[in-house]
Automatic annotation (TrEMBL):
This is Protein-L-isoaspartate O-methyltransferase. PANTHER family: PROTEIN-L-ISOASPARTATE O-METHYLTRANSFERASE (PTHR11579), PROTEIN-L-ISOASPARTATE(D-ASPARTATE) O-METHYLTRANSFERASE (PTHR11579:SF0). GO terms for molecular function: protein-L-isoaspartate (D-aspartate) O-methyltransferase activity. GO terms for cellular component: cytoplasm. The gene is pcm. Keywords: Cytoplasm, Methyltransferase, S-adenosyl-L-methionine, Transferase. HAMAP family: PIMT.
Length: 222
């Protein structure tokens, strides 16, 4: 069973969420739908009870297995770059706590998510299920994507990659967007690849972030 803290709809947490959304707006997040989705998701439910009081600070927090729930600004920025429309099929690599998947669900996406750590995969599935979010989750190496359900309208990688994984590019739909942090282990540039038409891609680069490493066949070695 997950711990609901002092209740899912505790006004204290709702109020803090509102303040967080205002902070994200001031930091430059413009997409109103993304801000509304963040307003809807109870981030405190995705972290341990001891950390729930810090859930609405704009910072990453530990979730076990040396992994983190990403900083809210990072989630908001990646989601903004994905430009998700309701009904689109979205693949997330790095389920972690499940928080980003919940934000994507709030945007009306059909969410597919892959995690390599069994404990995190199981806990995220349970949390999302208990919150009523319907997602497709898989345990495995997300650097290879999830070919059974490809192509995707959007793909987001929530761990830092040494290079853009080829398999993820190959699983994009026409007009599909891939958002992936690429760089060394200390700093990554946010890269967005848009598939214009079959065999033609546009690549854009955004400012730096710091992610935990993407580990796998087309990522870093363990
Ligand atoms: N999106 C997550 C959330 O909302 O809580 C945050 C993810 S955390 C920053 C990055 C996650 O990527 C970790 O849970 C890590 O185990 C996972 N990861 C790293 N390499 C992976 C891979 N090759 N396939 C799937 N997951 C991977």
């Amino acid at each position: 069973m997950i711990n609901w803290g002092s209740g899912l709809n505790n006004p204290k947490f709702k109020q803090r969420r509102k303040a967080l959304v205002e902070k994200l707006r001031k930091k430059g997040i413009k997409d109103q739908r993304v801000l509304e989705a963040i307003q809807m998701v109870a981030r405190h439910v995705f972290v341990d009870t001891a950390l729930q009081d810090r859930a609405y600070q704009d910072s990453a927090l530990p979730i076990g297995k040396k992994q983190t729930i990403s900083q809210p600004y990072t989630v908001a920025r990646q989601t903004e770059l994905l430009e998700v429309k309701p009904g689109e099929k979205v693949l997330e690599i790095g389920t972690g706590s499940g928080y980003q998947a919940a934000v994507l669900c709030e945007l009306g996406a059909q969410v597919y998510t892959v995690e390599r750590h069994k404990k995190l995969y199981e806990k995220a599935r349970e949390t999302l299920h208990e919150l009523g979010y319907s997602i497709h989750a898989k345990l495995g190496d997300g650097t290879r994507g999830w070919s059974a359900y490809a192509p995707y309208d959007a793909i987001v990688v929530t761990a830092g990659a040494p290079v853009v994984p080829d398999d993820l590019v190959a699983q994009l739909n026409v007009n599909g967007r891939l958002v992936v942090p690429v760089g060394d282990e200390n700093r990554q540039e946010m890269v967005r690849i848009i598939k214009i038409r079959e065999g033609e891609f546009e690549e854009e680069h955004y400012s730096d972030f710091k992610f935990v490493p993407l580990i796998g066949e087309q990522g870093w070695k363990e």
